[in-house]
Amino acid sequence: MTHPLRLAGAVAVLTGAGSGIGRASAVEFARRGARVVVSDLDADRAAATTADIVKEGGEGVAVRVDVTSEADLAGLRAAALDRFGRVDLVMNNAGVLAVGAPESLPDAAWERVLDVNLLSVARSNRVFLPLLLEQGSGHVVNTASASGLLAYGFDRLPYVASKHAVVGVSEALALYLGPRGVGVTCLCPSGVITNIMEQITAYGPTSATPRAPKHEIVTAEQVATLTADAVERGQFLVVTAPEVQPELVERATDLEAYLRARISEQSP
């Protein structure tokens, strides 16, 4: 348990909120009474999400933000303060993928994915954490992935690396921020119906069929409900597939045996 945050009356700031999990979360936060600052690299999508919030009677503002720019994130903070006077919840949700055989992925693939998926969280920390620490309350949600908990998806190693890092960063942040009154939630969804395919860059054919868990595909709206519930409960880890938990226990109990079993599953 970390610190719960009541969404009614809170000010929520989200990145990558023009579509998918970010959009659904922005709408869900607003339904629970939050005032929402919606940001996305695509200004039209951010505006569309905000329009949906306003149509349902909520309060929202749209901002175009490139999360690889700390200046853009500072502008997002300024927009939140100018419009609503405070920030209570920050959801770092922007993400991209690069796919290809591990031996074929160039530095550019690694750099782009780590810049968007991981370094954006570092930038957000510098921009928003001083506000939350000063007021001694608030909540941070970092969108990772089941790929950040379990090492599958070897056709997308930069994504796996970035999401493992986000999980670790989130856990460390919970230890740092918890005693200071700020909660942290790490969102680790499995298969979700979103437009993430638009964010994939492919580098040649993959060398093998990637291992993927046979988890139920859920909607972005279902993920948004789980996320909002976690924020209001002060819950750290959110998964969309309960099967993740026993596999984590299996791996932690005997990593050698776990890896042997997974390798055997890949053998022709």
Supply the key terms.
47% helix; alpha/beta; single chain; 268 residues; two-stranded parallel sheet; Rossmann fold; 8 helices; seven-stranded parallel β-sheet
Strand count:
11
CATH superfamily label: NAD(P)-binding Rossmann-like Domain
Counting structural domains, the number is 1
**Strand numbers in spatial order across the main sheet:** 3-2-1-4-6-7-11
CATH topology: Rossmann fold
N-to-C order of helices and strands: EHEHEHEEHEHEEEEHEHH
Poorly predicted ranges (pLDDT <50, ≥5 residues)?
A: none
Mean pLDDT: 92
Q: Specify the overall morphology.
A: globular
Q: How many strands, which pairing sense, and closed or not: the largest β-sheet? A: 7 strands, parallel
End-to-end Cα distance: 43 Å
**Helix fraction by DSSP (H/I, runs of at least 4):** 40-55%
Structural class call reads alpha/beta
Question: Which architecture per CATH?
Answer: 3-Layer(aba) Sandwich
Radius of gyration: 18 Å
Q: How much of the sequence is in beta strands?
A: 15-25%
Count, helices: 8
CATH class: Alpha Beta
InterPro entries: KR_dom, NAD(P)-bd_dom_sf, Sc_DH/Rdtase_CS, SDR_fam
Protein name: SDR family oxidoreductase
Keywords: Oxidoreductase
Domain Ketoreductase: 10-196
